[in-house]
User: Fold this.
Amino acid sequence: MEFFDSHSHLNDEKFDDDRLEMIKKIKDEDVTRFLTCGYNLEGSKKAIDIAKNCDYTYATAGISPNDIPQSEEELWKNIKEIKELAKNKKVVAIGEIGLDYYWNKDNHELQIEAFKKQIQIANELDLPIVIHTRDAVMDTLRVLKENNVINKGVFHCCPLNRELVKEAIKLDFYISFSGVVTFKNAKNADEIINMVPSDRILIETDSPYLAPEPVRGTRNNPTNVKLVAKKIASARNEDLEEVSKYTYENAKRLFKIK
Assistant:
């Protein structure tokens, strides 16, 4: 079996001491493809550097809603640089981008404008998007409905929200499940998992965050994506091999990876 971690942050400083060893371990553990995702300008550059030096990882580039600079001038300058970075052949999506009203309560309009601008860049570069949304479901869906995303994309670490999942599927987006679905307090995880067609499911770790049960509380890493796949297999009454296969193929299709 092979697994594809569709969202990790090997560019995070928590991997600075053992990044190369971890990258080797990932493949040894049958995670034969993974994405290193950008979240700001420096994180995107680092993601691309990692991808350029590893044939089985790819990168995304974007400014997340939690990394918007204080200055609007700096934000638009950074987004312009993101567009240039995203022309690199190892970049397979614009992201993570989106809206976060949990951590950021005073700049909603600026978040929305940054989201829309990066959707435009994705369309211009013929790339999908990787969406971060937290406590902002209605505005996220409104932006997507009002701004056509040509290559669609994925709701990363998708909130376990029935309305969001239902509308995202209608819009032809993918849903990515993280270790959150394994948590004991994720009461509706099985229901949400079963709402998503098998050709729209991705799996991820969001490393180094959100380590799944039974390793919750530790530094997460892409090898743990298998625990997410096991949860999906259990919830859907499917074989792990079947889940590994269709989530792998879905990631390849979305990100146009041969």
Remarks:
- The first strand starts at residue 3 and ends at 8.
- The domain at 3-255 is CATH 3.20.20.140 (TIM Barrel).
- The mean pLDDT is 97.
- Strands lie at 3-8, 31-37, 57-61, 91-100, 129-134, 153-155, 174-177, 201-203.
